[in-house]
Amino acid sequence: MSRFFLPLALLVFCILPVISHADSMRVWTSTSGTSIQAELVESDWDKVVLLRENGSELRIKMNQLSPADQDFLLKYIEEKNKGETGISEINAVAGKVRQNVRCGDDSRWGYHLYLPKKFHRGREWAVCFVMASGGGKSFKPMQKYLSAADRLGCVIALSIESKNGFADSDIAMAAMADDVFERIPVIEGMAFSSGMSGGSRMAYLLAERDKRIAGVLACGSGSGVYLKEKDFRDAKLRSSTYVYSLIGTNDFNRTGASKSHDGFSKECRLRFFKGFHDWAGAPLIEQGLSRVYGAALEGYNGIDSQMLELDYVKSVSALIKGLNEKAPWEAYYLSSYLDDQNLLTSELEVVHEILEKDERVHLALEAENDIRKFTKKYLVPVGFYVEDVQPNVRREVEANKLAGKYDSIPHGEMIRLLGKASRPPKKK
């Protein structure tokens, strides 16, 4: 059994050895539904000691308390251990973008930094490194990540100097990563790389070179990397690296993205959206980063892992509820992931069961399967770095025929668009 399946209460009790009577005298409920009023007086990895009002002690295992008690203790821990809500050394505060942080070891390189609204220095946080094809002259690309950052509790850093056509892009982003790990309380192994177009290729390269990076959220590219185009090659990712890709239906890099994912594990996801060569919208980035975060948690063994998991389940549960009506297939995708990890709460189990019976969900799952078959037939064979900008009559006819089945959901239009040629890159 994976560490990811361990009871969520473990960390909570591990780091609360003694709590005052006034703070912790409450009704505690077991997973079986029985309740007692008691005070938490001792805990470690193996036991929890509760003191009843009559003075007798009850020793129980950590996974025997209800999710509500775990939630109570998580909030208590956050408040009890809360530290400074910013990084005074670099004038960064929670919930605001700090522009142009220069790297301490080499001020040639810099980045824009965002600390999530719930940030404080009493714990460590996940982090996502972002590269934009045009660099970070503006912090505008970072804005697409802020909702995800606040929901998940994830620090965002956008490289200023890394950009297309800059031979030192790899040095710039590596300097950013090293500086963030040194000066910000972030977690090795709970770090991700992301970007758009050439920035996405840099994200793949960072994940290849830096073992602290656990996952990639790619937008607008396949996994081909290069500093000079003549050196183009496939990124050499570790088998544990999880990849979630977002790409426009008519992006000229759709062939490379399709071919890359044809070689990735089935857990990795290639997700199309209606559009050309551009960033995906903030909602899609939030959904993608949520899945990348979860994959990282599966392999993370830090002492704070259980607290991170409990917080993760809460954040993804809220996201699922928000998607329930407008995109039930995406709500089902995320709830199925939690179900696979044995992390569905009793409330979400009900939601998941309802989604399982939703005809739109079944239709979307069938459409996703047909899209995979379609891209494998028409996009993967085109080539790793070849732009399919010419019309293909056979492809378009088959797409139109296939799409009719899915016209009641957005997948129908996406399939039709996949049948059309991609839009060539703009001339410089």
Description:
This is SLA1 homology domain-containing protein. With 428 residues, the protein is of the alpha/beta class. The protein is 39% helix and 20% strand. The chain has three domains: 3-80, SLA1 homology domain 1 (SH3 type barrels); 92-300, Rossmann fold (3-Layer(aba) Sandwich), CATH 3.40.50; 359-419, no CATH class. The chain has an eight-stranded mixed beta sheet with strand order 7-8-10-9-11-12-15-16, sandwiched between helices. Strand 13 and strand 14 form a beta hairpin. Helix 12 (359-378) runs parallel beside helix 14 (411-419). 45% of the residues are buried.
Shape: globular
CATH topology name of the largest domain = Rossmann fold
* Percent helix: 25-40%
Can you say what the CATH homologous superfamily of the largest domain is? Alpha/Beta hydrolase fold, catalytic domain
Q: What is the spatial order of strands in the main beta sheet?
A: 7-8-10-9-11-12-15-16
| CATH domain class name of the largest domain | Alpha Beta
Indicate the multimeric state. Answer: single chain
Helix-strand pattern, N to C?
HHEEEEHEEEEEHEHEHEEEEHEHHHHHHH
| Global structural class | alpha/beta
Evaluate the radius of gyration: 23 Å
How many structural domains can be distinguished in the coordinates?
A: 3
The CATH architecture of the largest domain: 3-Layer(aba) Sandwich
Percent strand equals 15-25%
Main beta sheet: 8 strands, mixed
Distance between the termini: 53 Å
Low-confidence stretches: 1-22
**Tally of strands:** 16
Q: How many individual helices?
A: 14
Mean pLDDT: 88
Protein name: SLA1 homology domain-containing protein
Organism: Rubritalea spongiae
InterPro entries: AB_hydrolase_fold
